[in-house]
Description:
Layout: H1 3-9, H2 15-20, H3 25-34, H4 40-45, H5 66-78, E1 85-86, H6 99-106, H7 109-112, H8 124-141, E2 145-146, H9 153-167, E3 174-178, H10 183-193, E4 199-203, H11 205-211, E5 218-223, H12 234-242, E6 246-251, E7 269-273, E8 289-293, E9 306-310, E10 316-320, H13 327-330, H14 343-382, E11 385-386, E12 394-398, H15 403-412, E13 415-416, E14 418-419, E15 424-428, H16 435-449, H17 485-498, H18 519-522, H19 528-531, H20 543-560, E16 564-566, H21 572-589, E17 597-601, H22 607-614, E18 618-622, H23 632-641, E19 646-652, H24 664-673, E20 677-682, H25 694-697, E21 701-704, E22 724-726, H26 764-796, E23 815-818, H27 821-826, H28 830-839, E24 846-847, E25 854-857, H29 865-886, H30 904-908, H31 918-922, H32 926-930, H33 942-947, H34 956-963
Bound molecules: pyridoxal-5'-phosphate.
The site of pyridoxal-5'-phosphate has 15 residues, from helix 21.
Amino acid sequence: MNAIAEFDSLSGREEFRARHIAPSAAEQAAMLAALGLPDRETLIARTVPDAIRLTRRMAIPPARSEAEVLAELAALAAENRSDIKSLIGLGYHGTHVPPVILRNVLENPGWYTAYTPYQAEIAQGRLEALLNFQTMVTELTGMEIANASLLDEGTAAAEAMALALHVQKGGSRLLLAAADCHPQTLAVVETRARPLGITVERVAFADLAASCARKPFGVLVQTPSTTGELRDLAGVIAAAKGAGALAIVAADLLSLALIRPPGEMGADVVVGSAQRFGVPFGYGGPHAAFFATRDAFKRQMPGRLVGVSVDAAGRPALRLALQTREQHIRREKATSNICTAQVLLAVMAGMYAVWHGADGLQRIARRCNLAARIFAAAARDAGFTPRHGAFFDTVTLDCGDRAEALMAAALARGFNLRRVNATDVGVAMDETVTRADLERLTDALGEAAGRSVTLPETADPSIPEGLLRTSRFLRQAVFNSHHAEHEMLRYLKRLEDKDVALNRSMIPLGSCTMKLNATAEMIPITNPGFANIHPFAPAEQARGYRTLITRLEQWLCAVTGFAAVSLQPNAGSAGEYAGLLAIRGFHESRGEGHRDVCLIPTSAHGTNPASAVMAGFRVVAVACDRDGNVDLADLRAKAEANASRLAALMVTYPSTHGVFEEAIAEICAIVHAHGGQVYMDGANMNAQVGLTSPAAIGADVCHLNLHKTFCIPHGGGGPGVGPIGVAAHLAPFLPNHPLVPEAGPASGPGPVASAPWGSAGILPIPYAYIAMMGEEGLREASEVAILNANYIAHRLAPHYPILYRGAHGFVAHECIIDCRGFQASAGVMVEDIAKRLQDYGFHAPTMSWPVAGTLMIEPTESESKAELDRFCDAMIAIRAEIRAIEERRWPIGDNPIKNAPHTAEDVTAEVWTHPYSRQVAVMPLPFVAAAKYWPPVKRVDNVYGDRNLVCTCEPMESYAQAAE
Ligand SMILES: *Cc1c(COP(=O)(O)O)cnc(C)c1O
């Protein structure tokens, strides 16, 4: 080898892959030996059916090193013009991320690698942070109850429409929407309305009240309007209610620090975005949307809701409330398909309010308002007429024939303004605007007007007296205690330490793929070149993003085998919905719009039936056989019975039971033969990448959860990205966007998210992952994920029944263990095992899904053999504990499993009355002591919390009373 070749061979390009895929060659050999297999290829050959194995390599470049990919992403970021300040508005505003939040939340794996807080005892930190968010939203909006975030403002408005449709007394299918709502919000609502047979009529705000005579089920208004106008909404709200409709208000959260909140004007639902509370633009997302309503509608409210309850010792403890509303349980009767939301961003926004408090928020709001008033005064001096006398932070100018001149003069000085139409230009002020900015903007006005204008020293008030907020808000202790940075830093640390995230131990959640979120993948997202780009910035200012998006789409086409990909859906559920809309559009284009039956196996994830209903389909369930496979006879019968109306089958592959079904090609063929399309739920792609593909199995469309397979962290329940891939015949029906034509085909169904590329700000994560793994690395990851799962199945099989296996006795990338027998033998439920794992420092596997009474374990390729062994040791030790109960060495009602988890307070109490030792309680195995995790609360009582629903922090008054 010559010196240069040798030098290249030492580049470390394989190093990332070897760190992401944790088991070393020796560890893999040991696991294969335990399985009695000569090599990995033999395992794969016996796991993935031959008929669907890929014979060709994916068109993905070879691996590059962390340093190379970081440099490439930095170069792409530099092609995005973050030096230009976007004052475009449209629901997206510049903001200063408080550095203490940036570093200790957004850039902190203790927060970003956590899972959705279903296991409440080990999630008290993020549950408290979400309770803060909910409290902040109820306080600012003046509403009674708020959820823990939705995907974005547009989908939140669409969810409000769905709620209004659902709770109305009459049978109306008419929604009236003020024509001056944000255009993308209207478009998302219209997309959602169409398959449900709802008519959305855009009406001028002034005519809305009178139009209520037409008996709509809901009325949607925006405050301030998209062009910035502030109005008293009381009249419209009263008219809506008089007509039996729900009044839905999309509101700017910051404005509510100064303006009388919609709740005080009688609104039924208030939605909006919490983006400007310290969450960067990210070229459109991710940001937390909020949804607040009246107590009367709490059971119809979409999304997750955090509530206060008590633990087994009667101490206050938090957990997700009213979970029976969610799609996991309600399925096709669910009010919404939302699953993954925007937890990490909601945590940030809530902490922004904790950091600033009411006074700080009011200061920021007043400053934005004053900037707008100064600008309006300067504009008048220049001869431009503001369209509205009453405004908060957004001023729209009638520029006559000088609109282009003003846009150009502003751009020359480093600002993007909003070109509202031929004559009008809008400016939205935010907290980042400086005095120097105001001077430059004044200059721009002068240049466009052709006269000299100076920064005015007086500015008229712009908020009418009657619209000023008089009620106080955020008086709860949490918003008044952490204004010193040390207090804030320690508060964030305290909450973080209450939780189990991936930086502590493996989170073996079946179907959720909690794999490594490498630091190198995370670093680019806070680069200003990615973080600070407005979603509606001119295309030439976002070249880096456009290149990244195009390449990522190509790579995901290579992964799925499909012709086209849309990155717009911002969660798996949104991808399902978009994919079904594509199928709908396809049938309609062929004059077969009557096809409306969607077959869904009973084992499907709850989002599947919920999405199908949202897409206007009727759900017909298909049975599964004893082995967990789709019952072919039943499928055939249902397909035949519905042949003339068959629209689609939704199928998860490998199945939700963790097996590569041999009959998958036949399943797809049956559906096609009856005129249907096949939707593949791609949540289990981690078992497929490089080995088989949705196209190879015969599907027509699938979504990918980039927050599962492609390393976007779960963030405690979001953000996610759920792109869909489609075969060529469905490409014309991918989502598009009213403001950005390049985001999708003109023939598409409209947008399914507010931003053209959804949560673009986190796309550098899957980009970096794919680039650093390369084609071979991705394939190897799938193989090792399967190896790790089979090793766990092998170790646990002598202790727990393994529920399903493939034709040759192997599982795919996850395995299900059956815990149902322990109820009769020891009074132990699967939940008890989940809670006991907390004492061992582990997050439980997926519980009771897809089969009640079971645990579904998915280790991923990122866990080393040592960690797999620790987890298996814990599970095996728990089995021994169950045996002690079975043999009545411990009573059924008082044993370490039933009493789990144990807190430090429990075991340090003066008295200890249990028939097992304190050591058994909290240090059951030697490895536990080495890094003991202490659950902060005992078992949380779900029923108590739902009976006594409290979903906000306690008000100041109750703290004061307690102190008295
Ligand atoms: C996670 C998951 C979904 C939903 O994805 P979200 O991103 O949470 O909306 C759908 N189906 C399956 C099988 C899943 O595991």
